[in-house]
Every structure is written in C-alpha cells, then in structure tokens.
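User: I would dearly like some help making sense of a protein record. I have put the entry right below:
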Amino acid sequence: MDSLWRRKMLSRVMTVLTSGSAVLVIGVLVVILGYLAIKGVSELNLGFLINTPKPVGEAGSGIANAIVGTLILIAVASGIGLPIGILGGMYLAEFSSNRFGTVLRFLIDTLTGVPSIVVGVVAWTIIVKPMGHFSALSGGVALSIIMMPIVARTTEEMIRLVPQNLREAALALGAPVWRMSLGVVLRAAAAGVATGAMLAIARIAGETAPLLFTALSYNGMSLDLYQPIASLTYQIYYYAGSPYEQWHAMAWAATLVLVGMIFAINVTVRLLTRNRHQ
C-alpha cells in the first residue's frame, strides 16, 4: 500500500513539475512577444511597411526594401539548402548503416555547431572576394550552409519514424528503391520534414553575422541577386546601434515585423502539410 501511495505521489509531483515547466516556457515566449508588441507597435503602420528608409528626422521612413530583401535571401537559401538537406537526411536514414554514414552524421552535427560568423567569413572568402563585391547570392549561400545540417538531421529523424511496413509494401508492389524513398517514405514524413524546414528558415531569418560579410545592405529597393541587398536583421542591427530615438523605435517595429513574418510562414506551411497529409 505504501509503495502504491509513493508511486501515485511521485506521478503527481512529476506531472506538476512538467506542467509548470511547460507553462514557464510558454510564459517566456508570451513575455518576449508582449514586450516586442509594446515597443514596436507605435511605429508600425502601412507607410512603414511600403516605404524605403529615409534620412533621420524625415517622415515616412520604412523597411519595404528590408522585407523584400529578407524574402529573397530566404528564397535563395531555401532553394539551395532544402533540397540538399532533405536528400542528405534521406541518405542518413535509409542508406547510411556503415562507417561512412557514421562519419557523415558526425560532420553534419559538427557543421550544426559552427558559429554563423565563421560561415559568413567562409562565404566571403569563396564568393564575395572573387566577385569583388557583396551580393544577395553570397548571402543566400551563406544562409543555406547554416540551413542544410538542421534540415538534414530533422529529415533523418522524421524518416526513421516511418513504419517499415510502408517500405516493404512499396517494394512488394514493384516500386524501385528511389521511388519508394521519394514517393512513399518522404511523403509519409512530409509534415515532420516541413517542421524541420520551418525551424531552419526561422533560424536563418534571424541571422545577422553572415550577412555582414556577404549581402551587407542597400537603402533602395533591389531584386538583383548580384548586388548588395537589405535585410531585416541588418536593418534592426543598424537602427538599434544608432544614437537616434526614431531609429530605435523603427528597430523595435522591424523586429516585430520579422517575428510576424516567421510566424506567418510557420502557420502557412503547417496548414498546408496538415491538409495534405493527415
């Protein structure tokens, strides 16, 4: 009886501790978002979203170029990093039961921990220096290097959760291995893979250090991949470090826009993958 009572008490204590931890995590998120909303909403208006930056003190300044630049950088990085990361994760999950796979997994884990400023320096050395100038392309490549290991490891874990009988059923119906992997296994793990992709996009959307060495910034509206381009993170960094109160307020508003952008992308992809695969 005493043993049963202790187990029940221990279960209740652990339930309270885990519930409290979950509430604490959510509470931190609520505090951060609430503080951002309070500090940034005063400067947020339509003109702020559709205008480009103007000199300090001049009315009508905005961050439209930084929003467009951030979307371009994310698109370039995703176009490079997502296919490579997903295929790399599939290889680790399906075909890497050997020493080469173990070494490859270790190298990918190591790449995950490489500081982003180091990635920026490498991208500057192999792309910016030969080109002779900063560019959106070099920024996208640098961000894709950060994205790839995150996507690869998440894809591997999600594919490992796919039941083995799905693979056996596809092979029994005559599907080749490549079609079984892409058409059955990857499709079954799509929701989890999409979640990993969102985590990677959220990570690179908040990166500033690599862009200081690659894309830098541009005050006008630019769609040219071979020229410097603005980004929200660089704009926030620049405004926050300035001595002007107006730019400080714009930095808070730009931060709020960045968080809203990441949240919108996350929710959209979650809805699309849920409707298609559940």
